[in-house]
């Protein structure tokens, strides 16, 4: 099948507890994307802009997308905010691809942003909490760590895996984050430290949970045939797949499988016309370490129950057969909600162009990104190839 | 140019202060859209669903789009929430059109929803307020009525128009709403009552302001060539145009013109390949009466300063040369934020099929909808034709 779209530029702020305002983060990510375009960039060619954000720092909540046009220096450009909780960025990318596919947008801008650390912790809990299911789970006091803790406990019991598999995800992703100058955490973590850390929601400990981060990331998307004026090395979007699931985890037949991820993955592979074996590496949504194991299985990269042994065997390390989260993942790079799905594609953009520096993978021809909303109620999967 | 998409079904709840929950409103609007499809409907053909909402009743704020799949009876379908404040519905429609244009979605569902009356007034102010510009205007205590009041005062002074022109918009739209069984207000209002009502934000009085409403509306969108299996009378989408503007009104050169509306209108007409004169009637975003006058001018249906005399002369009445808001508009039909842009297209669907009952217009061949976010920072314009 033909390419569906091309990424011709990508930008990424530092992730972490940052001093910048939301506007400054937007601008910095967009400027980074613009600066990464090899040649011929003209802001006037941007025909649509998408903003992925959950709460915009609890500040400009309604109509915030208009600020993207201001900060991008593209007055008047149509802007739209999209929100699917933690999957907002992945879905925004899909809308941008469709905008160029529809033939009436030459260049689409996607920006993901979250500013979480300068709001009160009460408000932050509110913004995070509202993405959980409200009618039952929030009423019962279940936080995201709580939901994933229950899922993890069931997974470990069901498949006879122990916490070392979870710890191995943390150790690997922290090792990768240590090589990423944009990562929230840039320090390795030992297996002993991960296993010995205070419990947050049993069996999940401190190092099983991603941090609360600020940050932004941006992409410039063109139609495949329109990419060459901007660069000789575009990164192509080959396939899109998205899906939803019951919002309440309790309504799903089996909580250790995310049906939305499975369906989104199947659709993305069908849309790309590719097999699992064609993928060199993946960026998976590891908001908690257990989530990386679930994703490996739901996407068909590991059999049920086999993601733990696969991880313990080193296959998902940078030097393994199937590297996962070479940028550190949500776990170490950080998880500024709306930015995450966009930032995953940023990493793919670097890796597939051989521009990932110290963390460059030896083989990076095709990649997959996987972005999940809440505890699996929405999921977006995207498949990319090197130009 | 060819049609861009086809509406094959549309649904609309009552607007007003309603007892239903957000889930119930979603379901009722979707069921209405499904019931309106003439034949051959199969939920499994829905390939994407869009939810337009600002606050989902302040209840399920994050990841709410997954609930659309639940209430539509389409488990697993990709869902996405879009939010551009009061323009969310119009932008959601555009995304759905692009989804079918991209060729990989057969049928797209668009649902707009707001539930505003069962939250505390403080929380409602919060949800409305957050769509105003935060850095300056909200800090100064400026509400939406305040912003539009200032715009109205300037408009009246600049063009030598008096408040009777504003009152005429209210009288007309209330007269139309009286014929719409879904309208929030179904009672006529006299010119004297409109002019004599208490002032809200001078020169705007009570009847110059739209109400705070609950409600939902839904559309089913197909590719043009895929519409006939569902109906012999699809309503075609001929053109889309959208734009943004500075979020803060104070940063714009002239507050009595909404540059986003002007640009969105120009793009929509260019995209449709049609002249203004081809449009039989319009659904314009009359959140305040002054906004209908601005829209007539910004969209090129009246010269600058001429919308007042045009309105006073009766041209925009149901029996006038260019009917505006035959369903009662935001003013009388109500304005459940996320639902509004979708509900405008619902009215077009009825009118262009000759199914608008007591308020059916004698000439309804092509129509335009105009949906504005906040005080003009985002705008979506759509042009439709009868099948």
Helix content of chain A: 25-40%
**Count of the domains of chain A:** 1
Classify the beta-strand content of chain A into a percent band.
Answer: 15-25%
End-to-end Cα distance of chain A? 14 Å
> Would you give the CATH topology of chain A?
Peroxisomal Thiolase, Chain A, domain 1
Q: Give the class of chain A from helix and strand content and strand pairing.
A: alpha/beta
Output the helix-strand order of chain A. Answer: EHEHHEHEHHHHHEEEEHEHHHHEE
Strand order of the largest sheet of chain A: 3-2-4-7-1-8-11-10-9
Radius of gyration of chain A: 19 Å
Q: CATH homologous superfamily of chain A - what is it?
A: Thiolase/Chalcone synthase
Mean pLDDT over the residues of chain A:
95
Please describe the topology of this protein.
The structure is a homodimer of 387-residue chains.
Chain A: E1 5-12, H1 22-36, E2 46-52, H2 56-59, H3 66-72, E3 79-83, H4 88-101, E4 107-114, H5 121-129, H6 134-138, H7 144-159, H8 163-177, H9 191-196, E5 199-201, E6 204-205, E7 215-222, E8 235-244, H10 259-272, E9 281-283, H11 289-298, H12 307-312, H13 329-333, H14 337-352, E10 366-373, E11 378-386
Parallel strand pairs in A: 2-3, 2-4, 9-10
Antiparallel strand pairs in A: 1-7, 1-8, 4-7, 5-6, 8-11, 10-11
Helix pairs in contact in A: 1-3, 4-14, 8-11
């Amino acid at each position: 099948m033909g390419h569906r779209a091309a990424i011709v530029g990508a930008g990424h702020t530092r992730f972490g507890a940052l001093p910048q305002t939301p506007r400054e983060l937007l601008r910095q990510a967009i400027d980074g994307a613009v600066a990464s375009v090899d040649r011929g960039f003209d802001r006037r060619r941007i025909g649509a802009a998408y903003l992925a954000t959950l709460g915009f720092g609890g500040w400009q909540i309604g109509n915030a997308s208009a600020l993207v046009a201001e900060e991008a220096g593209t007055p008047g450009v149509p802007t739209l905010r999209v929100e699917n909780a933690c999957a907002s960025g992945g879905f925004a990318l899909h809308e941008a691809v469709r905008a160029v596919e529809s033939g009436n947008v030459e260049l689409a801008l996607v920006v993901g942003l979250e500013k979480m650390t300068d709001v009160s912790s009460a408000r932050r809990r509110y913004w995070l909490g509202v993405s959980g299911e409200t009618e039952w789970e929030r009423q019962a006091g279940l936080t995201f760590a709580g939901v994933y803790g229950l899922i993890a406990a069931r997974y470990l019991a069901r498949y006879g895996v122990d916490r070392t598999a979870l710890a191995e995800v943390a150790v690997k992703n922290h090792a990768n984050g240590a090589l990423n100058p944009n990562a929230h955490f840039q320090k390795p973590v030992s297996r002993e430290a991960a296993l010995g850390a205070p419990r947050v929601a049993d069996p999940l400990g401190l190092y099983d949970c991603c941090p609360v981060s600020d940050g932004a990331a941006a992409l410039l998307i063109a139609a495949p045939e329109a990419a060459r004026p901007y660069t000789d090395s575009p990164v192509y979007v080959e396939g899109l797949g998205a899906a939803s699931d019951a919002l309440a985890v309790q309504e799903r037949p089996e909580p250790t499988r995310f049906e939305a991820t499975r369906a989104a993955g199947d659709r993305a592979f069908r849309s790309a016309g590719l097999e699992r074996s064609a993928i060199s590496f993946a960026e998976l949504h590891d908001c908690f370490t257990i989530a990386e194991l679930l994703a490996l299985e739901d996407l068909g990269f590991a059999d049920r129950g086999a993601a733990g042994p696969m991880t313990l065997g080193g296959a998902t390390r940078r030097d393994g057969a199937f590297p996962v989260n070479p940028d550190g993942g949500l776990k170490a790079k950080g998880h500024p909600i709306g930015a995450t799905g966009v930032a995953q594609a940023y990493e793919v953009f670097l890796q597939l162009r051989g521009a990932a520096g110290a963390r460059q993978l030896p083989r990076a021809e095709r990649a997959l990104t996987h972005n999940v909303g809440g505890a699996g109620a929405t999921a977006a999967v995207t498949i990319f190839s090197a130009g």
